[in-house]
């Protein structure tokens, strides 16, 4: 009907609640590139008032529009507290057991007083969880941490920027009710007092005082009940004072807090770089040159002949590879997608459908990339393969006219990107266990297909990487590195896509099977290129030898990164 404004708002509303929907993601990207579509059209028709105001306030805040930010953040805080009261009121209805465990607990109540106590504890716990409900954006599972305190933190700075030191000090004092020993805020409080004068009375907001006092009293009652009457309590707040928690419950509380802290990466620690484990590799661009964090580009990871050998292997992917057979591409109808996993390559090699040495090279090249990324980003901490995929994207003939989509829309690899909320939600269906990602390019004889990084808005491009043989781009998989792939407009783009995890339980099982297959039955041959610059490639004539010895995958190279792994030799059957 050509009603773009309504179409965009409907698409945006659906996408907010269904961020994993690929088709809607593509539609949103298409709308963003239309000149007739205004930014205001991207509105959530089902948004709650406090979230709508909060996201508008964050956008103004990030744009240094502090007067507008103050107005919307104050509105958000007021609406959030109102929504909190409504949620708390709904906790006072009849106690309906949600599962069998609660039903059993209810049946086990021995008397009236115990039943009343159990019901009241249930109401208190429900009220405490209300802060998570208002802090969870519609369509999301995870709540925003410290939702109420974060308002005060942002408001304190915004008021300070517009010159209103009185309200800035009031917000600082209110924030300190949650975190009384927070050193940065205490320092700002001193500055505000200095500017206002030592005699100026600075007090926290009455609404925040009441909120904190009531919450602490409820926590005290709940912890008393848990300690003496049994049961559990998942405290929704990070700011709960340690002294409020009974001694016998503190250990579990600390474990819960540590688990939450584990989600937040220490940027300084992650920025430490280790020595590269191979000679001849060059760092073409680092994080600073790429205008971000945890990004790097390496050159000369593969030789020209190794790229040719792996490209030969990709020809098998069109017929036998693990691509997307029902659709030409999972992301765009304008390209044909072909994929080959390491296990499929090993099976094809075992059946004689592809050169055994090419399949072996796929394993070696990806392992070399893993060692490089591990030594650069996480020296001393093991990275496991999460998934390895040899992928080619080919531009469809005569279907590029007027094309506006991307080869791969902007996304993050371990969280669901939310451009409007400036957040990335680390929850399923995202691969939340992935820690680092890599792309090892095999060719450059195509048009388009470059990798690009953006800000959280998915629109502002911060860096671009142009593919070429032997170039490895590596980056952390989280919200700090949103990325996409420009449309492949002509030719065929091939690369090895790599994902890594610190979690051994999420290690790639197909790779273990592939390595076992490759060791079971190897054909005769001479010395083989080990993807590390030693030996000969398969495009060169092998030197026959009767002294070549079998190499087992069980005997892995030394973890000492100063030594260079030796090229694997093929067993001489003669």
From TrEMBL:
Its cofactor is Fe cation; L-ascorbate. Residues 388-502 form the Fe2OG dioxygenase domain. One of its GO terms (molecular function) is L-ascorbic acid binding. Residues 63-90 form a coiled coil. Transmembrane segments: none annotated. Keywords: Coiled coil, Dioxygenase, Endoplasmic reticulum, Glycoprotein, Iron, Metal-binding, Oxidoreductase, Repeat, Signal, TPR repeat, Vitamin C. Residues 535-544 have a biased composition (Polar residues). One of its GO terms (cellular component) is endoplasmic reticulum. Gene3D superfamilies: q2cbj1_9rhob like domain. Its EC number is 1.14.11.7. One of its GO terms (biological process) is collagen metabolic process. SMART domains: P4Hc. Residues 507-530, 557-574 have a biased composition (Basic and acidic residues). Residues 249-272, 507-574 are annotated as: Disordered. InterPro entries: Leprecan_dom (IPR056585), Oxoglu/Fe-dep_dioxygenase_dom (IPR005123), P3H (IPR039575), Pro_4_hyd_alph (IPR006620), Pro_4_hyd_alph_FE2OG_OXY (IPR044862). It is an enzyme of class 1 (oxidoreductase). Belongs to the leprecan family. This is procollagen-proline 3-dioxygenase. It comes from Urocolius indicus.
